Amino acid sequence: MLGLRNIILLSPPPTQITRPSLPPVNFAAVEDNNTVGEKVCRDCGNRAKKECLFERCRTCCKSRGYNCVTHVKSTWIPSSATRSSSSPSERKKKLKIDKQSSPNVSLLPTTTSRQERGFREGLPGKIEAPAVFKRTRVTAISNNEQAEIGYQATVTISGHIFKGFLHYYGVDHNKAFPCLSQK
Amino acid sequence: MGMVGLRDVFLVAPAYHHQNAGVISGSDHMNSNAAAAAALGVGVIPLLTAGTPQQNVEDSDINFLGNNRRWQNNNNNHETQYLHFKSTNQTTVGTSSNNSGSGSGASGTATCQDCGNQAKKECKQRRCRTCCKSRGFDCSTHVKSTWVSAARRRERQVMPTGANPTAGSSLSTSSGTKKPRIVGSQQQQQQQATSHTSTSNTPPQSFETSSSRQDGGGSREAWPGQVRAAAVFKCVRVTAVEDGDDEYAYQAVVKIGGHVFKGFLYDQGLEPKEGFPSMSDLHLGGSANNHNGVSASAPILDPPNVVYGGGGGSGGGFYS
Questions:
Q1: Chain B contact present for A114, CB below 8 A
Q2: Does residue B245 fall inside a structural domain?
Q3: Is A158 within the bounds of a domain?
Q4: What per-residue confidence (pLDDT) applies to A116?
Q5: Which residues are Zn(2+) 2-binding (chain A)?
Q6: CB-based contact, A51 to chain B, within 8 Å
Q7: What is the total count of domains within chain B?
């Protein structure tokens, strides 16, 4: 027990020496074989690529609607398909988001996309603003499911552009919301 | 030989998951885990399980123990939800190999419909934690808990590994082939993925349907391709996994074509000058002066709702 504790106490100083420039000292997994300083996704904690400017994994880049240069649409195969190697035809499954949902506004990815403190305090809690809703098609991983219709919304609030996907929730039985398409 | 290695990697992850859930316990599984770990260089999992009772003094381990307790509580909920899932959806028959061996556990793994990660069988939406959060589903399985991120888990695993010379030698032997270790690390990451989104309003009960599929192709064509209209956006706080700064996003609930769409709008950065018309700038300028952001027309969402409230608010927030 004492030996284990001594060994544990000796390991933190090398990581601090390895990363002197990062303000939040993260004791990430440092291995001699791997490259030092692996990134983790800021939303879900999964491992993110170093080239991603938004510091997020593929899933969170997709869900946030970022036009990430690194996580471009490709012939990516989910890990469950590679795990089930019994049938090779299942490797054709792909994560599909229709390319027609790309916005007209070409936003340049910025490394400092975080919101500053003064900007956050000035954000209104509730706002009614004109927005653009574009229909998009979200395809599930397995090809058995039909494509699902969603809407991509883009709005400008306090000089910032907010963008995201609105997913289908069901029929409005109680008529709680006014219909936007009838306006 | 490589295929055998891949299969051994497959066997490790569900056994680890079951051990955390408290379903499978025995020396045979420990031996099999140790053998697979020695073969592939993933010698961290048994060390973590073995080292847990010795490190009760540290705060992070206490969180881990709390996480174990929470999982045990969730395990009871999972069983009832699984029965409920079977009773509601009889058309989509899921695999009924929950408590069987690790081999069939790997074959019967439910995958997330959005990203392909490994999803829990008890989740009605058949999605992982990350996609349930991003889609705004009020999933009772993926409830906010004292979850520890994969990076911190790997951080704890590496400390005894770096000190252990035998584990170092196994890592050096596995350095020749990168694919098995990457797959192993991905399996560890898939089971621990979440994003803490604290929204003040939960969707009403009438929208929580186990089968959220859309109608046939005919009604889908009735939905317009593009709509320019004013909608109400509610500010929500999105918390990062680490203790970094929070970020604010906007939640929108709109009705298009008689159906309700809901989602989160994230900050993309400053607006380009040539991007949007000046009408929105003038409107936003007027709204920015008013700190409450109450518009002239009657708002769709109720004003007395707490904007920055925690998760699990009242269900009637969307009714006016």
A1: yes
A2: yes
A3: yes
A4: 61
A5: 41, 57, 61, 68
A6: no
A7: 2
Evaluate whether residue B118 is within a structural domain. yes
Q: Do A126 and B234 touch (CB under 8 A)?
A: yes
Average pLDDT over residues A29-37: 40
Choose, out of A91, A168, A175, the residue to mutate when testing the contact with B (most B CBs < 10 Å). A168
Is residue A114, in this structure, part of any structural domain at all? Answer: no
Contact present, B163 and A7 (Cβ < 8 Å): yes
Give the integer Cα–Cα distance in Å for B183 and B189: 10
Q: Is residue B119 part of a domain?
A: yes
Q: How many folded domains does chain A comprise?
A: 2
Choose one of A28, A56, A74: the last residue of a domain: A74
Each residue of A12-28: pLDDT tens digit? 444 434 434 444 443 34
Query: Given the structure tokens 């036009």, which residue do they identify?
Result: A67
User: Residues A110-135: pLDDT tens digits?
Assistant: 434 446 657 766 777 877 788 888 77
Amino acid at A37: G
Q: What gap in Å lies between CA A154 and CA B268, rounded to an integer? A: 10
Pick A135's closest partner by Cβ from B3, B111, B225: B225
- Does residue A12 lie in a domain region? no
Residue A49's domain comprises 36-74
User: Is pLDDT larger for residue A177 or for residue A111?
Assistant: A177
Closest-CA residue of A relative to B249 is: A162
- Low-confidence residues of chain B: pLDDT under 70: 1-109, 126, 133, 138, 143-223, 237, 239-246, 271-320
The boundaries of the domain holding residue B263 are: 230-270
Which residue in B41, B191, B92 sits closest to A142, CA to CA? B92
Percent of chain B with pLDDT strictly greater than 70: 21
Q: How would you classify the pairing of strands B247-256 and A148-157?
A: unpaired
Residue B218 domain-assigned? Answer: no
Instruction: Pull the structure tokens for residue B121.
Output: 């069988």
Enumerate the β-bridge partners of residue B229: A131
Packed helices B2-21 and B44-51: angle between N→C axes, nearest 10 degrees: 20
